[in-house]
Amino acid sequence: MEHEFWLNKWQQQQIGFHLSAPHPLLQRYKDECFDSGPVFVPLCGKSLDMVFLAEQGHKVLGVELSETAVVSFFKERDLATEKEPANDLMAWRGGDYEIFQGDYFHLSSPALEQTRQVYDRAALIALPKPMRESYVEHLEKIMPPDFRVLLITLDYHQDEMSGPPFAVSEQEVRHLYQNAREIKQLRYTSIIDQEPSFREQGLTDLFQGTYFIQY
Ligand SMILES: C[S@@+](CC[C@H](N)C(=O)[O-])C[C@H]1O[C@@H](n2cnc3c(N)ncnc32)[C@H](O)[C@@H]1O
């Protein structure tokens, strides 16, 4: 997607993707997938999942395009911040969080080289197909060789709705992450009954997939 698309969404506060509580699947699978080390949250928005991770003792690194999102995240927690340029991005630090504000595709940081865990909720599925390949390629470039990912996807008939969120099937996850040592599907369930607004937009079904990916 164009940067303008997301910056406008934040400007106009059209952030239906933002949840008012930590994601239940993060709570369910965190201990199974992560050790006590830091966690990288790409395309993080101002997600409360970061707060949950910090409360569980993790240092949290994020990257987010929108300055509005980053400023709101720290402001809503009443956290004092300091910021400094980090290549093309701006690194904001406060509490247990370090959020790089700018384009994920320009991110590289020594801090990430020490981070072996990635939490992806609504990041991969926020991107159109050609960008999803670049997203995984970039992740493989900026993370250490033995990283792992807890990934939450949505899947539906793409011709029934234009994204975002985009449909990402299990087959595509396996293709995108073909360089990984292990890809385990933890869960794949229909959630259309809990998401009536998607039915109103024309979807006949909507599945949520959860994967553990180990390099
Ligand atoms: C669907 S939202 C999900 C946010 C968050 N993961 C959550 O669960 O609430 C996608 C986010 O990615 C951000 N984004 C989109 N393209 C980006 C890019 N190239 N670099 C960094 N952030 C980006 C958007 O501003 C938006 O906040």
From TrEMBL:
The Gene Ontology biological process annotation of the record reads: methylation; response to metal ion
InterPro entries from the UniProt entry: SAM-dependent_MTases_sf, Thiopur_S-MeTfrase_Se/Te_detox, Thiopurine_S-MeTrfase, TPMT
EC number, UniProt record: 2.1.1.67
Location in or out of the cell? Cytoplasm
A cellular-component GO term for this protein: cytoplasm
Q: Name one Pfam family in it.
A: TPMT
Reactions it catalyzes: S-adenosyl-L-methionine + a thiopurine = S-adenosyl-L-homocysteine + a thiopurine S-methylether
Alphabetic keyword roster: Cytoplasm, Methyltransferase, S-adenosyl-L-methionine, Transferase
Give the main location. Answer: cytoplasm
| Residue sites binding S-adenosyl-L-methionine per the record | W10, L43, E64, R121
User: Under the GO molecular function aspect, what terms does this record hold?
Assistant: thiopurine S-methyltransferase activity
What is the similarity comment for this entry? Answer: Belongs to the class I-like SAM-binding methyltransferase superfamily. TPMT family.
Query: Which NCBIfam families does the entry link to?
Result: PRK13255.1, TMPT_Se_Te
What this protein is called in its record is: Thiopurine S-methyltransferase
- Write down the species: Pleionea litopenaei
What are the top taxonomic ranks of the organism? Bacteria, Pseudomonadati, Pseudomonadota, Gammaproteobacteria, Oceanospirillales
